[in-house]
Every structure is written in structure tokens, then in C-alpha cells.
Amino acid sequence: xxxxxxxxxxxxxxxxxxxxxxxxxxxxxxxxxxxxxxxxxxxxxxxxxxxxxxxxxxxxxxxxxxxxxxxxxxxxxxxxxxxxxxxxxxxxxxxxxxxxxxxxxxxxxxxxxxxxxxxxxxxxxxxxxxxxxxxxxxxxxxxxxxxxxxxxxxxxxxxxxxxxxxxxxxxxxxxxxxxxxxxxxxxxxxxxxxxxxxxxxxxxxxxxxxxxxxxxxxxxxxxxxxxx
Length: 228
Fold this sequence. Notes:
The structure is a single chain. Helices cover 34% and strands 5% of the residues. The chain is built from 7 helices and 2 strands. β1 and β2 form a beta hairpin. By secondary structure, it is mainly alpha-helical. Strands 1-2 form a two-stranded antiparallel sheet. The longest helix has 17 residues.
């Protein structure tokens, strides 16, 4: 049957979902609040089936989405800060523009996830910093990237490039916290490596792919690691 959330005064339909039981209705209420009004409340959506759901701009800050199914869901611009997606399925989900600061993706499946704008934005930055790319990859592999800060020994994408170039990050003209790739890098913290972080692993793959496209190779990376 169809579940609806209506405006208390006007009666206008604010959110609709197809449900089969009372539990689905509760989940629909929580998701509807997050999508339409930005209400977070650290929603408990443990095991929820949200396949194909449109969650554009939803506030799921701190939400429990352990084991949830989000296959094909549109998470463009969703706030997933500190959310738990441990064991969740995000196959084919659109994660472009999602904020991943502190998100737990251990055991989650991101096969086929749409990260086109993240990849394109990353490449746009790397094309302006080709000499620094090998050292960036080394820093990522050694757990020396922290997506939440532009400065310090462990910094974000732009901050790491600035560190390698030995300049202040603001002089690069690349810093913009709203960029898709910067929002993606929020999911990488100091100590995260491709071995223990799925976001770091996917990012490593993007950087290696870029290096192959522009003719950089693993020998250059090894030399960069020795110099650093």
C-alpha cells in the first residue's frame, strides 16, 4: 500500500512511499523527515530497504544504516557525517556530492557506485598538480591524509598537494569545501589506508588510473616515497 506524509494545515502530500508493514511505515517517516525537512535525530534505519530511494539533500547525520540496502539509491548531497553504513549495500548508488566526514563504511559494498563527478573533480585538480601526484599517492598509502583540514602534516587533497609543493594551500587557488572531491575526501582520516578504508581504496584506484592516463608509473611513486 502507499504511505503518505501530509502537511498538517494544507493537507498537501509531502512524502510518499510504498510500504508492506508497520515497520516500513516507521522507516518511511524517518526518511521522509530527513529528505523534506532535514530532521536528523540520528535516525535508526538498521537493515532498512531503501533500494532506488531518492534521498537528495537528506540529513542523515549520525544515522544508523548498518546492513541497510541502498542499491541504486540517489544520495546526491546527502549529509552522512558520522553515519554508520557498516555492512550496507550501496551497489550502483549515486554518492556524488555526499558528505562522508566520519562515516563508517566497513564491510559496505560500493560496487558500481556512481562517483563520476568526484572522479572528474579529482582529475581537474590533479591535472594542475601532476608533479605532486606521486607524493599524494604515497601519502594516501601511508595513512597521511586527513580530509577535514587544509593544513598540517596530514592534510586533505589540496593541503597535501600544498605540503608537497611547500606552499600555503590558499595560493593554489584550488580550495573549495563544496567541491565533490573535497566532500569525498572528508571520509578519509589520518591513519586510513587502502588496506583499512574503502574510501581510501577507491581513491587510490582513481589516482592510479589518472597516473596511467598521464604516463606516470609505479617507479615514480617509489622514488617519491624515498625522497619524502
